[in-house]
């Protein structure tokens, strides 16, 4: 249950002030980090309610939220905006420093097969979680090879491979090194015993400067 009551003027004001500072929303007033992955899916950072209205006018029907924090002002304002605009909001929580579980990968595949398009997918910055989900979308929905789909994890989208968020790239690199040479599809590899999220994360090594950038300077979520 959210602590923000959007049914009153002061409750809504409280939510916006919290959203503005706690979630660093002021940084996103004029910058959405938006990029079309295909003609039916656009990736972006956390949208303001007024930006969702603009996306609605551009035909977006489904908004996929990759963040947690269901009791935050961010989630309350986004859900309220989607309800008012008649957009479907889907919560699909992904982390930026963990190897996704097998269930999460398979769940992403199912979600991309069942949602109504056009859709917008977002995390906070639009760089890491939006990146790995765009890779999965490009592979499962568009049929792109993993090597090609990995372009969605790029500095172009503000993704930092050298930091702890580089574990997302490492997942696909492990597949290309272990699964692809054996003739396995990415899905077959994920469904096999070789896909061990705990072991894969343990083997990953981030660079010190990348970690400094993502954890101390940018303070990525």
Automatic annotation (TrEMBL):
Highest taxon of source: Bacteria
One Pfam family here: PTP-NADK
Domain DSP-PTPase phosphatase fused to NAD+ Kinase: 56-138
Alphabetical list of InterPro entries matching this protein: Prot-tyrosine_phosphatase-like, PTP-NADK
Organism: Phenylobacterium montanum
Gene3D superfamilies reported for this sequence: Protein tyrosine phosphatase superfamily
Protein name: Protein tyrosine phosphatase
Transmembrane stretches, start-end: none
